[in-house]
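Quick one:
INPUT:
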């Protein structure tokens, strides 16, 4: 029998969360962001549900080709654009749209032999200061692309740095939205500006929305709002079982470094899950976890292959009892990945991307 740890990808939850994005932006095309192998879920595993989206957005040519191999004929957007002039040939062959965020990318398009017809997303740096043209250079970049026979369409694009919160006392996106609107004024073409946080929190004119994390059942603005608030459902469940039970006496310790010490008689369970499965080693004593569907806490340091849980609220737990590291239990109890992430000093994004290759995945329809 294989080690009991496994991850479940829930198709019904993906379908549901996509519908939440659609309901929030009824006039927009909803692109599913599937970068980082669909936020750790596996592109092929989310495709059955997310093929109901209007398009896909991702980073690598290799991931784009995997989506084409699944039979997808709709739009695919490369969020970081092409990395070399050579990539433009792949964009033609696989009909990929791509971001243009740098002058050298415009030069590559200019030198690319016609009759290529590219659909480009011209990216404005409205304050994130990662990718994109400064507002002062944006209109010139647009004019230059607009004049090229190799360019079939230009979508105005920007990415918000603060759509999940506030910046300097004002709603996080106001200042970026102002800059964007002023800069594109009078230029034709559709817009793509909203990520998950903007979709849920800010009704904006975004012809194409780029929904990522919300599709995967994590709230972009946790802890201000939870997935229950946004009516999102967990799409990934990391499940395992108890391998052993230990009865501790006062002053007994648990795990490497003896970082946890019992202050009373305590029953603990040993779970087949460790940092080599992608569970964060930094997750401290007290990180929430489900045993037999009951919420309890981890105790002691996470080791490579195991971690320990306090069985006080689940006295009936035994070897073989189900453990949910995050997601849904078989009985329907849920532990939001956001709760685990906050306890571990990170975000749901990182936890779902971190599940390692040794964890087998199951697709649940
Ligand atoms: C990752 C990404 C998104 C999706 O963001 P979420 O917060 O996961 O919705 C949208 N746009 C760009 C440019 C991205 O890189």
């Amino acid at each position: 029998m294989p080690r009991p740890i496994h991850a479940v990808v829930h198709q019904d939850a993906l379908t549901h969360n996509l519908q939440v994005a659609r309901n929030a932006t009824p006039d927009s095309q909803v692109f599913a962001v599937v970068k980082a192998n669909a936020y750790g879920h596996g592109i092929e595993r989310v495709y059955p549900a997310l093929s109901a989206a209007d398009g896909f957005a991702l980073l690598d040519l290799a991931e784009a080709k995997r989506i084409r191999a699944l039979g997808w004929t709709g739009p695919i957007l490369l969020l970081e654009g092409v990395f070399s002039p050579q990539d433009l040939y792949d964009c033609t062959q696989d009909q990929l749209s791509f971001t243009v965020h740098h002058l050298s990318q415009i030069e590559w398009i200019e030198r690319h032999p016609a009759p290529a017809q590219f659909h480009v997303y011209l990216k404005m740096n409205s304050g994130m200061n990662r990718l994109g043209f400064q507002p002062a250079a944006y209109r010139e970049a647009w004019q230059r692309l607009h004049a090229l026979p190799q360019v079939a369409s230009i979508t105005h694009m920007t990415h918000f740095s603060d759509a999940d919160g506030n910046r300097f006392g004002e709603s996080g996106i106001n200042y970026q939205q102002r800059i964007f609107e002023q800069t594109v004024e009078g230029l034709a073409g559709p817009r793509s500006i909203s990520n998950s946080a903007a979709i849920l929190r800010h009704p904006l004119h975004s012809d194409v929305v780029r929904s990522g994390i919300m599709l995967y059942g994590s709230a972009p603005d946790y802890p201000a709002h939870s997935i229950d608030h946004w009516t999102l459902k967990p799409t990934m469940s990391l499940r395992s079982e108890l391998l052993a039970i230990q009865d501790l006496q006062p002053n007994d310790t648990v795990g490497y470094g003896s970082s946890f010490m019992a202050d009373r008689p305590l029953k603990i369970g040993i779970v087949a899950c460790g940092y080599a499965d992608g569970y964060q080693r930094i997750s401290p004593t007290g990180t929430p976890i489900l045993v037999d569907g009951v919420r309890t806490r981890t105790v002691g340091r996470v080791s490579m292959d195991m971690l320990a849980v306090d069985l006080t609220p689940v006295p009936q737990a035994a070897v073989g009892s189900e453990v949910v590291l995050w997601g849904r239990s078989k009985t329907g109890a849920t532990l939001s990945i956001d709760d685990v992430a906050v306890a571990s000093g990170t975000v749901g994004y990182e936890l779902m991307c971190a599940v390692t290759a040794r964890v087998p995945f199951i697709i649940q329809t």
